[in-house]
Specification:
The complex is a heterodimer.
Chain A: E1 12-14, E2 19-21, H1 25-40, E3 49-53, H2 58-69, E4 73-80, H3 93-106, E5 113-117, H4 118-122, H5 126-132, H6 141-158, E6 163-165, H7 170-182, H8 186-191, E7 195-196, E8 205-207, H9 215-224, H10 241-255, H11 259-272, E9 286-287, E10 294-295, H12 302-306, H13 308-311
Parallel strand pairs in A: 3-4, 3-6, 4-5, 6-8
Antiparallel strand pairs in A: 1-2, 7-8, 9-10
Chain B: E1 2-5, E2 8-11, E3 16-17, H1 18-24, E4 32-36, E5 39-41, E6 46-47, E7 52-57
Parallel strand pairs in B: 1-7
Antiparallel strand pairs in B: 1-2, 3-6, 4-5, 4-7
Classes of the chains: A alpha/beta, B mainly beta.
């Protein structure tokens, strides 16, 4: 198969676009698609300070790479969750993914990069916290999401970043949408968007510049661009429902090229036309009495409540 | 040819198109990228008997 733009051998064929490109033209096309998404959804401009949440995986490192190539003020945030680290000793999944991020950042001298080490800062790793709280019923994924959302917002606020960017791709968004539709979670559906505006209560603006690109395309960009990312999956992701939904959608895509793209873009068009909007209720937020970050119920936020058993003696509990 | 995916290996006899070889070992072509000698391959490329191809999973998250 030949590249659409030249006669060289193609490295990727995107059936949903009927487009095959070579290793020279593919990264150019990819970068352009990201720029178009940023502009289409008015995500941010050249004067914004963008905090990119990086995990060491293909999507987040690709996003950081593309934003830097486009000349944006994109700085990184890595949250070391201590996965695979026993008794405070380094090693395992988090150590490996952190090394990938550090190696990537070293290629861009002068670009700021923040690391929040959960164990060093809070005295516990994610598996340790997840093991002693009820949330998530033994699986750390729910606690992981809570910690990441809290830390990302905190660092963005403290560092006076105007935008927080995450590497969610179209497959992530389509799988989330599919899962929420299966259970008719209309509140979640209403809040799913490429941009979540900043709130006066203290939530920073959140954007997903890769939301129109297939997961396959971000992996291909990373490989073609020589980005050294962590291939291994988070050990706790095995058996996750979202992975099952992705597989179902990929079976559909196999039979009907473009099905995932139509599903997600159709949703965005419907959303723009006003569907689901009545479900998007404004919830009154309060500052957490401990950290000051916004929370829906008065008192401690869900993140600070994770540490409550350590802060209060056992006789304070029922 | 030899196909490597995660910690598994398969040997296929004869010549195969990349996408057919991926299906033969039970994977969806949409969910992997094929790499030979460090270069990405499209699904229509014919693999020869002595080729070694590494498949890279593209699905992540949880």
């Amino acid at each position: 198969m030949k590249c659409r733009k030249c006669s060289r051998q193609a490295v990727i064929n995107m059936r949903q676009h009927k487009l095959a490109l070579c290793e020279a033209h593919y990264p150019e096309w990819f970068v352009l698609q990201v720029q178009r998404a940023i502009e289409k959804y008015h995500m941010f401009g050249p004067h914004d300070r963008v905090l990119v949440a990086v995990s060491g995986g293909k999507d987040s490192l690709t996003l950081w790479d593309v934003l830097l190539r486009l000349g944006y003020q994109a700085e990184g945030l890595y949250i070391d969750l201590g996965i695979g680290r026993e008794d405070g000793e380094p090693g395992g999944y988090s150590t490996l993914s952190r090394e990938k991020v550090e190696r990537f950042a070293a290629q861009w001298p002068g670009v700021r990069f923040t690391v929040v080490d959960l164990w060093a800062e809070y005295g516990e790793t994610l598996p340790e916290i997840a093991g002693r709280v009820q949330r998530g019923r033994g699986k750390p994924c729910s606690v992981c999401g809570l910690i990441k959302r809290h830390v990302m917002n905190r660092i963005a606020r403290e560092g006076h970043y105007t935008v927080l960017a995450t590497g969610h791709n179209l497959d992530d968004e389509a799988a989330t949408l599919f899962g929420n539709l299966l259970h008719w979670q209309t509140g979640y559906i209403a809040r799913q968007a490429p941009v979540l505006p900043a709130s006066e209560d203290g939530f920073v603006r959140k954007v997903k510049p890769l939301c129109r690109l297939y997961e396959r395309e971000t992996a291909a960009y990373a490989l073609v661009s020589g980005i050294d990312y962590i291939y291994d999956e988070c050990p706790y992701a095995v058996g996750a429902t979202s992975l099952h939904h992705k597989e179902l959608l990929n079976r559909l895509e196999e039979e009907s090229p473009g099905a995932k793209l139509q599903f997600y873009l159709g949703f965005l068009r419907a959303r723009e036309a006003g569907f689901f909007c009545e479900q998007s209720e404004m919830v009154a937020l309060h500052p957490c009495t401990n950290c000051g970050q916004p929370t829906s119920a008065p008192g401690l936020c869900a993140f600070c409540r994770l540490w409550k058993p350590k802060q209060e003696p056992a006789d304070d509990r029922p | 040819m030899k196909i490597i995916y995660r910690d598994k290996e398969w040997e296929l006899k004869g010549r195969w198109r990349v996408q057919d070889a991926i299906k033969e070992i039970g994977l969806l072509p949409q969910t992997v990228l094929a790499v030979r000698d460090g270069k990405l391959l499209t699904g229509d490329v014919i693999l020869e008997e002595d080729d070694e191809v590494k498949l890279v999973a593209v699905i992540s998250g949880g």
